[in-house]
Amino acid sequence: MVIAIDIGNTNIMFGFFVDGELIDTLRIATDSGRTSDEYRLMLLQFLDFENLSHEIEDFTISSVVPSLTPVFRAVSKKLAGREPILVGADLPIGITFAVDEPQHVGADRICDIFQAHKLFPDENVVVVDFGTATTFSVITKNGIFLGGPITIGILPASTELFRRTAQLPRIELVKPKSAIGKNTVEEMQSGVIYGFGGLVDRLIEHIEEEIKEGVKVIGTGGISHLMEGVSKRIEMFDKLLTIKGLFSIYEFVKGNTY
């Protein structure tokens, strides 16, 4: 078994791969205070609960939380007996980074563009990842990462709307019945959900204007489903794109190293 771990600011996603197939996933809240032993025991308990094998061949890690990277390196060394493959712009994966500071490109974005390019090698692709931040990652059909806009995430935006106002309530993030809304909750849901849909579509237009070509748009992230039927430009949704990309990078590196 190979375990892929995507360490995000809000959640940590684990993907369990056997013979190249994703057989199970686990999502937990990110907690920088946990030790490697705690995370190791948590993983083993999950494997027992799901009746999965403890025979772990390897780990591959994507992390945007630097303090947790050594924690999970220790988990890998204890459970697999080796260092994990760590995703970063310095890892040779056949992608050209046409940005000013490649070392600052988030590992999750690298996983996103790698998988997008693998799925659609003959098209320009924009991956919109709805997480703590909403990121737009542009990769050309020639395998060149051009960068992409970054803005606030849907959940933090709705949370701040509640926190910064005296009379607006905390809302559930669901698609409202109408864009206009008939009460405060529906009106806030509309502003957040349809507002982000409009933001996505307009930024895609700007991207196409800049590169002077059309793009295919993929939506991913835990709450990307909120954009289904809202964004007119997102053609495909896959919540697990990042974890699949992380494993695809692992396969690529292993195939080119061993």
Automatic annotation (TrEMBL):
Pfam hit, one: Pan_kinase
A Gene Ontology molecular function term of the record: metal ion binding
Keyword Disulfide bond: no
Cofactor requirement: K(+); NH4(+)
Residues reported to bind substrate: 106-109, 184
Primary site of residence: cytoplasm
Bound cofactor: record note: A monovalent cation. Ammonium or potassium.
Keyword line: ATP-binding, Coenzyme A biosynthesis, Cytoplasm, Kinase, Metal-binding, Nucleotide-binding, Potassium, Transferase
InterPro entries reported for this sequence: ATPase_NBD, Type_III_PanK
GO-annotated cellular components: cytoplasm
Family classification: Belongs to the type III pantothenate kinase family.
Primary role: Catalyzes the phosphorylation of pantothenate (Pan), the first step in CoA biosynthesis.
Protein name (database record): Type III pantothenate kinase
Organism of provenance: Caldisericum exile
Gene that produces this protein: coaX
